[in-house]
């Protein structure tokens, strides 16, 4: 299937101080093929998630891990890429605060990249902005992937999990030193009523 680049100029705003409403819209970018060696795995993951969320109005997923450096940003970005082959539009929300955000590149993406911390100064403001993005995505029948900070470094993921369509939990078995932490995070997600879509074991 064709991969189309998504643009949303008003999602980031053109002026330094303006707070534009988020939008999701498809552009007419050239077809682009995914060439990463692990693309097929993400295509299968995207198909599974799209099917699990099919029929619902809230087709969004939070990519969460218990501790930092589990590969959330890599998984979230490649999942968003793979979703663009079967869904239109697709947005990736980078909900990591500036000090925790992965280094940004100027590469064009086949999805709409939204950084709410560029539009809000507090966590409450970020959550409000993300709610608006989710509303726009529902209206456009699109999908949203949210890359959030690790549960042990920020509570943002716990606030977003209940309002998302589901949570994709990420773990690297070689880095799990305290299973009690992982269990505590899962228990908190259950307490909040979050829907766990599955667990990705990152061995990279």
Give the key terms.
204 residues, alpha/beta, Rossmann fold, six-stranded parallel sheet, 6 helices, 33% helix, globular
Quick summary:
It contains six helices and eight strands, in the order βαβαβαββαβαβαβ. With 204 residues, the chain is an alpha/beta fold. The protein has one domain (58-201): P-loop containing nucleotide triphosphate hydrolases (Rossmann fold), CATH 3.40.50.300.
Number of helices: 6
Global outline: globular
The CATH class assignment is Alpha Beta
Q: Span between N and C termini?
A: 27 Å
Please count the beta strands (DSSP E, at least 2 residues each). 8
The assigned structural class equals alpha/beta
Q: In percent, how helical is the residue content?
A: 25-40%
The largest sheet is:
6 strands, parallel
Largest sheet strand order = 5-4-6-3-7-8
Mean pLDDT: 80
Q: What letter string, H or E per element, gives the SSE order?
A: EHEHEHEEHEHEHE
CATH architecture: 3-Layer(aba) Sandwich
- CATH H-level name... which superfamily? P-loop containing nucleotide triphosphate hydrolases
Topology-level CATH name = Rossmann fold
Strand content range: 15-25%
